[in-house]
Amino acid sequence: MSFKSILQDMKGDFGSISRKGFGLRSRSQRVVEDRSTVVVDALKQSCWANMPPELLRDVLMRIEESECTWPPRKNVVSCAGVCRNWREIMKDIVKNPEFSGNLTFPISLKQPGPRGSLIQCFIKRNRSTQTYHLYLSLNQANDDGKFLLAAKKCRRATCTDYVISLNAEDVSKGSSTYIGKLRSNFLGTKFTVYDAQPPNGGALTTKCHSSRPGSMKRVSPRVPAGNYPVSNISYEVNVLGSRGPRRMQCAMNSIPASAMDPGGSAPTQTEFLVSNVDSFSSLAFFRSKSARIDNSQSGTLLTGQNDPMLVLKNKAPRWHEQLQCWCLNFNGRVTVASVKNFQLVAAMENGEHENVIIQFGKVGKDAFTMDYQYPLSAFQAFAICLSSFDTKIACE
């Protein structure tokens, strides 16, 4: 029997149990359990019940290797949701985005992107509802791509919050799919990215300014439960005038600068930590494992005073004589001039890293591209891009 026919038989036996948006629609845990029971019962009556573990693993490995893009990759998610045995096998087979370049399970959105290549996404803005949706796709043409994250802008008297959720239909801090937020200061020039999950196994650090210029130290912040600061974004006064791009800097509190060195590593979250019985009840199926040791378990990152944090800054633009404007090479990913457009690189002691870590730019009235790579995750990159949407009179 060919692999293609095996895959077709599998689809016929248990069907597709993945749901749009990584299977994170708001449903009760009872419905999920009932559905899983039906699938398991169907499998017991099929030829898959008595398949040798070695053969089953080989079949699942072939499925994971053959389904590289969405929507076909939903078959990998379906296999992980069949039963506990299949789920454990898929957890071992599916690699983190850093090694595979694929976003498969929801936890992939909190893990570093691939090294040496950009994951290409785009953002759709809805002005009437003040919402922003992130999709995995090369562009916004023809289809919406694969939904990844949603954010909603909430104006307050002294600040602005962008609540980030895994569910496009329930973007609120009270939702079980809430994963973090972005908060601005009163002027909209400084932002803090908060994670709903403690990074690096709960070892928190943050930036603290010292009286000596250019120096920073690490302290353990006192923060409310569910609000863990992971990065600080600041916009400077635009010294180039109205024609120049904004100047911004991102201090990644949860990522060490050594992550950019050859052989360096960034913290990698391997599962969502549940705070109560109902939180992330539908995420039990969707956890991935790296072939490498989890950084949160090793306890070697961000624990010493001498390990500086990663700082990202704008890539310097060049002046185009013919166009009479400041330009950056986005390799065709940006088509509309805007002060929101930016490219960020790692700031090094002897200058700046040549590789673009994240780039963001306008391609339509309410359409923007977002490309990112290691050591940023999709969640961190999305939060950085959301900061660019805020009006900054002092910077323009």
Question: Could you explain how this protein is built, in words?
Answer:
This protein has 396 residues and is of the alpha+beta class. 21% of the residues lie in helices and 27% in strands. The chain has 9 helices and 16 strands. The strands form 3 sheets. A 12-stranded antiparallel barrel has the order 1-2-3-4-5-6-9-10-11-14-15-16. It has a two-stranded antiparallel ribbon with strand order 7-8.
Largest sheet: 12 strands, antiparallel, barrel
Low-confidence stretches: 16-33, 201-225, 275-305
- Strand segment count: 16
Structural category is alpha+beta
Spatial gap, N to C terminus: 64 Å
Our count of helices gives 9
The pLDDT mean sits at 76
Succession of helices and strands: HHHHHHHEEEEEEEEEEHEEEEEEH
Strand numbers in spatial order across the main sheet? 1-2-3-4-5-6-9-10-11-14-15-16
Spatial shape: globular
What is the percentage of strand-forming residues? 25-35%
Radius of gyration: 22 Å
**Helical percent range?**
10-25%
Note the main attributes of this structure.
alpha+beta, two-stranded antiparallel ribbon, single chain, globular, 12-stranded antiparallel barrel, 396 residues
Concise overview:
This protein is an alpha+beta fold and 396 residues long.
Break the fold down into its secondary structure elements and pairings:
Elements: H1 3-14, H2 20-23, H3 29-44, H4 53-66, H5 74-80, H6 84-93, H7 97-100, E1 119-126, E2 131-136, E3 146-155, E4 160-165, E5 178-184, E6 190-195, E7 206-209, E8 216-219, E9 228-236, E10 247-256, H8 295-298, E11 309-314, E12 318-320, E13 325-327, E14 342-348, E15 351-362, E16 367-372, H9 378-389
Antiparallel strand pairs: 1-2, 1-16, 2-3, 3-4, 4-5, 5-6, 6-9, 7-8, 9-10, 10-11, 11-14, 12-13, 14-15, 15-16
Helix pairs in contact: 4-6
